[in-house]
Design goal:
By secondary structure, the protein is α/β, with parallel strands linked by helices. It has a domain at 2-141 and 185-205: Rossmann fold (3-Layer(aba) Sandwich). The protein has helices at 10-32, 46-53, 80-87, 109-122, 149-153, 178-181, 194-205, 215-218, and strands at residues 2-7, 35-39, 62-66, 68-70, 97-98, 128-131, 161-164, 173-176, 186-192, 225-230. The protein is globular and about 40 Å long.
Length: 231
């Protein structure tokens, strides 16, 4: 299920989301001594990243990762890792730990196996998950056009991370799987603009998950997805 929270401006959304996330991370640290958060790339979360980086937290107890990543060099403009380092791992958040999804040159079986073990051991389940959404209804790198989409959305998938080759977007990807993303304690979908509002309406109007993977989060009765939207 989902709940839509509308804001009068993107700045207001960024501030509210940053404050809410900071509170959730603080609570997790108070209970377990550590907290984990996965964020998404693109231009939408930059303001949120900057707002969150300014908040006082015991950042050394926080591990940040990505919901998915393009398999490109960290210096590449398409790198979400670069985006996070330049916009979130700044200011007061400099002390946070970062779990790299892109490790090494080749996304081979051995690399995936090592990353899966590390994620399950030190990171999962996530305390906070911030998703984005594409015009085709994909989220993370759960692309409807990929041959891997059934596996990526399967609740029986034991892998936390997998390789995805989208047909309508560039670059090989690594992504967290649906079966592990939905185990997150707090799930947010951060979207802005009239175009994304139309995509949300389209997602609500149907129930075929393979057609629009974001429906798996918005329509699952056991998953509470908080949608944060501003024009």
């Amino acid at each position: 299920m989902s709940q839509i929270n509308e804001f009068i401006s993107r700045e207001a959304l960024d501030t509210k989301l940053a404050n809410n996330v900071a509170e959730l991370l603080s609570k997790a640290i108070a209970v377990r001594g550590k907290a984990s958060i996965a964020v998404s790339g693109g231009s939408t979360p930059k303001g949120f990243f900057k707002a969150l980086s300014q908040i006082d937290l015991p950042w050394k107890n926080v591990t940040i990762t990505l919901a998915d990543e393009r398999w490109v060099d960290i210096n590449d403009e398409a790198s979400n890792t670069r985006l996070v380092h330049e916009n979130l791992l700044q200011n007061k958040a400099k002390q946070a730990n970062f779990f790299h999804l892109k490790q090494g040159e080749e996304l081979c079986t051995e690399t995936l196996s090592d990353l899966n073990l590390a994620a399950k051991t030190s990171l999962l389940p996530l305390d906070v998950l911030i998703l984005g959404m594409g015009e085709d209804g994909h989220t993370a790198s759960l692309f409807p056009c990929s041959e891997q989409i059934e596996q990526a959305l399967s609740l029986d998938n034991k892998d936390a991370l997998m390789k995805v080759l989208p047909k309508t977007a560039p670059h090989q990807r690594i992504t967290f799987t649906y079966s592990h993303l939905i185990q997150s304690d707090n799930i947010f979908l951060h979207v802005v603009g009239e175009g994304k509002q139309r995509v949300l309406a389209q997602a609500d109007a149907g129930n075929e998950l393979l057609e629009m993977p974001i429906r798996a989060f918005l329509q699952n009765p056991d998953v509470n997805t908080q949608v944060y939207w501003a024009e």
